[in-house]
Each structure stands twice: as structure tokens, then as C-alpha cells.
Write a structure and sequence with these properties.
The complex is a heterodimer of chains A (113) and B (111). Chain A is an all-beta fold and 113 residues long. Chain A is 0% helix and 50% strand. Chain A has strands at residues 4-7, 10-13, 19-25, 31-38, 42-51, 54-57, 65-66, 76-78, 87-94, 103-104, 108-112. In chain A, strands 2, 4, 5, 6, 9, 10 and 11 form a 7-stranded mixed β-sheet that branches. Chain B is mainly beta and 111 residues long. Chain B has strands spanning 4-7, 10-14, 19-25, 32-38, 45-51, 56-59, 62-67, 72-77, 86-93, 99-101, 105-110. The chains are: A mainly beta (113), B mainly beta (111). At the A-B interface, strand 4 and strand 5 of A face strand 5, strand 9 and strand 10 of B.
Chain lengths: 113, 111
């Protein structure tokens, strides 16, 4: 089954404790992206990747890192999480660019205390 | 950078009526405009999209129109049904491949 998966789905952590949210797709998509969703602000793009070893900043990259060592995986790294990073995070992928149907993962709800 | 504004933030219609959601964008280089539907607790899903070389696109009860000169695009849902109730997001993509979303519209269709 073609899908985008994220782990964990729910996470409660404390300020400053490094964490990684994994994202994986099995559709051989080149384009992958991370968004955060906050009430009243919609979805804001954090980082995106056009292909392996190619990553670019989105709208709100501060406090986040990403890597794209393999085509299928695009982990989101919070080196030192802060409470303002409490949010719902979505990973998405599409075939070659953002101009095609983006398939979203199920979301990761993060609470930083 | 791109800025996408979406109106209204909430919309309530009677079943069978039409619903219209409007978005404006600031970057004239934007060339791709998708609409996503997000049901409560679920992930966003693409329902329709339009590219900058097209003025209108229709898929059954859903249509999108684009006015490049005015830099606005709209989602039209006809003959609304209770299952259309959800949050709808518009988005715009520029040549840099980063996607900007509107803040969302919560549509409620009353039976």
C-alpha cells in the first residue's frame, strides 16, 4: 500500500531534549516536505527536499534540521526543543515537485514542556 | 516571500446550498494552487488543484477559479452535503518550490 508514515504519532518531551521525528514514503517520491500546523495559522512549511542530499528552508525553518540521505526517508530533527515548537507536524511527499499531488503522513502531535 | 490569505475563516451553509472560499496571494510568480480538505483528526488531502495557465477547473461538485491578474483563486462547492464539513486550505507554490498555505476555512454543512 502506497503511504507516508511518521513516527512517533504522539510525543511529550521537555525543553532542550533532542528529538527526531521520522518520515518514510514507499512511493519512490523525489519531493518531501515538513509542515507544522497551528490553530489560526494553517500549515507552514519548515523544510523541503527536492531529492537525495538536496534540502531547502521553507517558511519557518528556525529550530529545525532535516536530512535526506536516502530517497524514502526525511527525518525532522529538533536539536533543542522549546515550548513554541509544540505543534502538529505533517510530513508530505510528491513525485517530483510541490506542483503535484502531495501525500501527507498521519501527523505527529508534539508537546514540549 | 509569498503570503496567502484565505477568507472566510468559518462558513456555515445549509445542505444543498453552495459554498465559496476565497484566497489571495502576493507572489506573481506563483504557478500552482492546490486545495486541501482536512477532516477532524485526519491528514490534509488534495481535492483539486489548478495551474497558472488555466482559469478554471471542475471536478463534479467542486470547481476552482483563478484570476492571475487580481492574484486570487476560489473554491466552489455546489450541492453541499454534510460530509463536506471539514477545514479547507488553499495553497500557492512559487518557482522555489516552497508551498504557502492559507489559514484555513472551517466549513459546516447543516443537514
Amino acid at each position: 500500500e502506497a503511504q507516508v508514515t511518521q513516527n512517533p504519532r504522539y510525543l511529550i518531551t521537555v525543553t532542550g531534549k533532542k528529538l527526531t521525528v521520522t518520515c518514510s514514503q514507499n512511493m519512490n517520491h523525489e519531493y518531501m516536505s515538513w509542515y507544522r500546523q497551528d490553530p489560526g495559522l494553517g500549515l507552514r512549511q519548515i523544510y523541503y527536499s527536492m531529492n537525495v542530499e538536496v534540502t531547502d528552508k521553507g517558511d519557518v525553518p528556525e529550530g529545525y534540521k532535516v536530512s535526506r540521505k536516502e530517497k524514502r526517508n526525511f527525518p525532522l530533527i529538533l536539536e533543542s526543543p522549546s515550548p513554541n515548537q509544540t505543534s502538529l507536524y505533517f510530513c508530505a511527499s510528491s513525485l517530483t515537485s510541490a506542483s503535484q499531488t502531495q501525500y501527507f503522513g498521519p501527523g505527529t502531535r508534539l508537546l514540549v514542556l | 516571500g509569498e503570503n496567502v490569505e484565505q477568507h472566510p475563516s468559518t462558513l456555515s451553509v445549509q445542505e444543498g446550498d453552495s459554498a465559496v472560499i476565497k484566497c489571495t496571494y502576493s507572489d506573481s510568480a506563483s504557478n500552482y494552487f492546490p486545495w486541501y480538505k482536512q477532516e477532524l483528526g485526519k491528514r490534509p488531502q488534495l481535492i483539486i488543484d489548478i495551474r497558472s495557465n488555466v482559469g478554471e477547473k471542475k471536478d463534479q461538485r467542486i470547481a476552482v477559479t483563478l484570476n492571475k491578474t487580481a492574484k486570487h483563486f476560489s473554491l466552489h462547492i455546489t450541492e453541499t452535503q454534510p460530509e463536506d464539513s471539514a477545514v479547507y486550505f488553499c495553497a500557492a507554490k512559487n518557482n522555489n518550490n516552497d508551498m504557502r498555505f492559507g489559514a484555513g476555512t472551517r466549513l459546516t454543512v447543516k443537514p
